[in-house]
Write a structure and sequence with these properties.
- The protein is an alpha/beta fold and about 200 residues long.
- It has ten helices and seven strands.
- The longest helix has 17 residues.
- The radius of gyration is 17 Å and the shape is globular.
- It starts with a helix and ends with a strand.
Length: about 200
């Protein structure tokens, strides 16, 4: 096992204890900031992270945790489907290419609309007596560039209140800049904390 994989495995193993801590759940020790967190990882580790998210969600559900786990790629598909845009999107991509598709989807899948859609899913999950303790956002690599990490987090600030939120990010997060896939130019963002160093 190489050092990078060992390091990622060690970091992944720290997620549940961090998420289940009172500080995380109560937004404590954040200096009056919203409890937004980023778990960054190398894009080539996507499958390992995806498997760990499935393992974690199963384990935390069995422990009685109430949370919302959202695959951002599935959100894109669901939003297209609810607006009857799926077939048109496939046709645009096939006939005119990726750039034309991206341009066509910028309006319907604008970051504030995506954030609103996510917020509505959380409200639905809050029906009854259960209250969402935290939100896990993953699948960003599959939804990129339609959904961008910094744009989504900015749009979500006003919509999820004090619910701690974790974005699993395929790239680098240095506390000031999100750099998708560790190769793209970074986008400035400063209102999130690194979930696990």
């Amino acid at each position: 096992m190489n050092n990078n994989k060992k390091s990622l495995t060690a970091r992944l193993d720290q997620i549940i204890p961090k998420i289940e801590s009172a500080d995380f759940l109560n937004n404590q020790g954040l200096g009056n900031e919203i409890g937004f967190y980023v778990f960054d990882y190398q894009a080539e580790s996507e499958l390992v992270v995806r498997e760990h998210i499935a393992f974690m969600t199963d384990k935390m559900q069995k422990r009685g945790r109430t949370f919302t786990s959202i695959n951002l790629f599935e959100v894109v598909l669901e939003m297209l489907e609810t607006r009857n845009l799926t077939e048109r999107a496939f046709k645009t991509q096939k006939e005119r290419g990726d750039d034309a598709l991206f341009k066509a989807l910028k309006g319907p899948l604008e970051q504030n609309r995506v954030a609103e859609f996510i917020a509505n899913k959380i409200v639905l999950d809050n029906s009854g007596d259960s209250k969402t303790e935290f939100i896990l956002l993953h699948g960003l690599g599959s939804a990129w560039p339609i959904i961008r990490g910094h744009g989504l987090l900015n749009a979500l600030h006003a919509k999820v209140g004090n619910v701690p939120t974790v974005l699993f990010y395929p790239g680098e997060w240095d506390g000031l800049t999100l750099k998708a896939f560790s190769t793209m130019d970074g986008n400035g963002y400063y209102r999130a904390f690194k979930l696990v160093p």
